[in-house]
Amino acid sequence: MKDGVIVKVRGLKGRYELTSKYIQAVDGCSFEIREGEILGIAGESGCGKSTLAKLLLGSSMDPSLKHLEGTIRVYGYSIGDISEDKLRKEVRGKKVGYVPQGSMNALNPVRRIKKIAKDTYSEKFGENISEKDIKREVVPHLKSLGLDGERVLELYPFELSGGMQQRVVIGLSTLWNPGFLIVDEPTSALDVTTQKKLARTLLDLREREIVESMIYITHDIPTLRQICDRIAIMYGGKIVEIGNMEDVLFKPMHPYTKALIDSILTTEEDIGAGSKRGISGQPPDLTNPPSGCRFSPRCKKSGQNCEKDEPVLHNVGGRKVACHRVVENE
Ligand SMILES: Nc1ncnc2c1ncn2[C@@H]1O[C@H](COP(=O)(O)OP(=O)(O)O)[C@@H](O)[C@H]1O
Ligand SMILES: [Mg+2]
């Protein structure tokens, strides 16, 4: 794509349409990702991070999810406009790899890894592939991820460590060099050493040009620092701050970013001022979000206009921030 932009999202809105209510989980997100770039996404649970990921793969990822407004272009494909068939055959797995949240725990416990790999192929190509072909294709890829591919294919998921399961999931999501990879909270159940190894594995995938760009969703600040070029902070279905990783983590501007970084447990003393406080209150109910700034009910800096007018992202010192107070002070 022009200017090396691989992913371009504009004014994206998506909601879950349930029988009794609508949940406005993604409410006006815009950003782009360039070739070679890893964008981290952080924010409390329920802020719309996983929904944003699903929309990027086509809202049919979830039957109750509807892509309401806005555009998504990925490698020239206009995701909201193309048929399910085209998404399946040309986009998912081929252009966009996806490691869904909880995918490690979702490995079918009663199937050996070779059967799970076979399912992955049949889902994609709708045909039966022989075990010999599976081995020929999957073993070298798993080996390149540091796994004994031949042995792993014969095992059941419970026979693998958490770190190995995660690498199997990443391996199966990147079999066809997807270019753009979305990894949703992969490390929450892993210990620190395994998290670091996983981050290294992802960087290796980029170095080997199996993927060129990524979205990495996590609360794990050390991993964000290790792998991300830029970070977006989500709150209540919106991006409230987006910019270079170092700027956002070390000099957060939005009061929510500050509170989030303060509250996230980290072993690194230079971030979060050493104090680990929770953020008081709850993220907004997305069936009926507050007017104005969605963070205003919890924000210490909230003033009159914050409850009335919805802030939009403004360029502030090389990044974008959606906060009335920050813009006033510039
Ligand atoms: N499959 C679903 N059906 C209905 N509501 C959902 C579904 N998945 C998520 N939600 C709701 O959408 C909102 C955003 O959720 P999600 O995107 O999972 O946030 P995050 O990944 O940031 O934790 C939440 O209010 C959540 O309860
Ligand atoms: Mg999530």
Automatic annotation (TrEMBL):
One of its GO terms (biological process) is peptide transport. Keywords: ATP-binding, Nucleotide-binding, Transport. PROSITE patterns: ABC_TRANSPORTER_1, ABC_TRANSPORTER_2. The keyword Cytoplasm does not apply. Signal peptide: none annotated. One of its GO terms (molecular function) is ATP hydrolysis activity. It holds the Pfam family oligo_HPY. Gene3D superfamilies: P-loop containing nucleotide triphosphate hydrolases. Residues 7-261 form the ABC transporter domain. It comes from the Archaea. Residues 273-294 are annotated as: Disordered. This is ABC transporter domain-containing protein. It comes from candidate division MSBL1 archaeon SCGC-AAA259E19.
